[in-house]
Specification:
The chain is built from six helices and six strands, in the order αβαβββαβααβα. It has 175 residues and is an alpha/beta fold. It has one domain: Rossmann fold (3-Layer(aba) Sandwich).
Length: 175
């Protein structure tokens, strides 16, 4: 409660989360849906080498979400170039085709390895349109090896039921 008040009055900054994934539009749509509390079709384009910063609120807990620009590309920015170390990470797996899923898996493994020392929680979001992705990308093995630091939640737009994943992330960031 005190932390929320201090954040609201600008005395402390809210925790930061970074989105990673192949599809900028999908990441932004997910973040805007959380921000608005209902489905929000992404339409704006973030250009150049910057991030879209979106203030989210999960059960009264403010978060600053950073989404890489469309031009910059999610995986083209390196974790060393981030404004600061995030408290948590949202990894959106692109299930468009087999090649995108395998590229997402490679990037997820790299991300897990790079963040292991910092022990940042990682929320993996996968579209319910392709439930085979868990098996195809060996996600169960990756999740099991990290002992609770990584969780997988599915989503289906336009529903915002995936908010449970963000609740998990906020809880893990508070630990």
């Amino acid at each position: 409660m005190l932390k929320q008040l201090l954040t609201r009055f600008g005395m402390i900054s809210p925790p930061k989360i970074y989105f990673y994934g192949l599809c900028h539009v999908e990441m932004t749509t997910l973040a805007r849906t959380v921000e608005c509390g209902r489905y929000y079709q992404h339409s704006e384009r973030v250009q150049g080498f910057k991030f879209a910063e979106i203030r989210l609120e999960i059960d009264g807990e403010p978060l600053d979400a950073y989404i890489p620009s469309d031009t910059f590309g999610s995986f083209l920015f390196t974790r060393e170039n981030l404004p600061e170390t995030p408290g948590g990470i949202v990894f959106v797996i692109d299930t468009t085709d087999a090649e995108s899923m395998h590229e997402s898996r490679r990037e997820l493994i790299s991300l897990v390895h790079d963040t292991k020392k910092l022990s940042q929680p990682i929320l993996i979001l996968v579209s319910t349109a392709n439930t085979d992705v868990v098996a195809e990308c060996d996600l169960e093995e990756i999740i099991a090896e990290e002992n609770g630091r990584i969780a997988l939640f599915t989503y289906s737009l336009p529903s915002n039921r995936f908010i449970e994943g963000f609740r998990w992330l906020v809880k893990k960031m508070e630990m």
